[in-house]
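**Sequence, structure tokens**
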Amino acid sequence: MTQFAQYPEIISKEVVQQLHFPVSDVLATPDARNLRRYSAERATTLGNGYHGKVDIYFKTADGETKRVQTTVWANDAEYITLKSGAFLPMRSVLGIDFL
């Protein structure tokens, strides 16, 4: 489970399209980025195979941490595609919790 100093704001997946995201990656180490990529792959398998939801924690351009509970339909090196059709930049994702 992803740990934070304060509880992140929960938003709906439809709001994601209205947000702005950081230009640089929010994760500092290659190991953390590899884990994020692996988690995104697992979330995609869960979403497509079982319609399972995950909590995605991410940072916005203004530095706020937010959380969205959704089904992940697809991912690649740059983006995660959510059930609503919204795209979340991979570089903004802090972590993924499986429900």
The radius of gyration is 12 Å. The chain has one helix and seven strands.
